[in-house]
Design brief:
The chain contains four helices and seven strands. With 180 residues, the chain is α+β, with helices and mostly antiparallel strands. The chain is elongated and about 65 Å long.
């Protein structure tokens, strides 16, 4: 027996193990923004979840007494003159996931005051687009008004990145609603 004949099965085993590990589905990526859970919020009190400056919007939410809809959330404009650089889309239509090219941007956890086991979890997804602008002779990205107007007329305006906020309730409800 030679050393090569003894090591061949070991090499094949290592290669097989490496390939098996490489073929495992990738674990979900952590969010781009990491944060602690928010302070507990009282039922019926509207609170800001997060500002998304690229979309010129902020998300607001509120715990309710409705067992079917224990938490409501929505978006509001930050200010009238804001020019969005991204779109906030309906998560039910977009169905964001890593498989569809979305990136988990943020996870906001909001506990319900007086009910430590109940938490609203809002996952904010971001879908980037290739917005690379060609550089001029000086290496600067320049967008000229006349060119932009021509693109708008021809319908070839660049696609905007998208954001979607998905709500998920975690934990058990507290109080009388949990009994019935």
């Amino acid at each position: 027996m030679t050393v090569d004949s003894l090591c061949a099965p070991l090499r094949a085993g290592c290669a097989g193990l490496f390939l098996a590990l490489a073929c495992l589905p990738a674990l979900a990526q952590p969010p781009e923004i990491r944060r602690e859970p928010y302070p507990p919020q009282a039922v019926g009190t509207t609170h800001t979840i997060r500002v998304i400056p690229e979309t010129c919007a902020y998300l607001r939410g509120m715990f309710t007494t409705d067992a079917l809809v224990p938490y409501r959330y929505g978006a509001s404009k930050t200010r009238e003159g804001c020019q969005p650089r991204a779109r906030l889309v309906d998560p039910a239509k977009a169905m964001p996931s890593e498989a569809k090219g979305w990136i988990l941007n943020d996870v906001v956890r909001i506990p319900q005051a007086g009910c430590a086991s109940r938490m609203a979890v809002i996952r904010i997804w971001r879908k980037p687009v290739d917005t690379q602008v060609p550089l001029d002779g000086r290496g600067q990205a320049r967008i000229y008004l006349q060119d932009a107007k021509q693109q708008a007329k021809s319908g070839t305006v660049a696609k905007l990145p998208e954001y979607a906020a998905v709500l998920e309730m975690e934990g058990r409800s507290c109080g009388a609603a949990a009994q019935g």
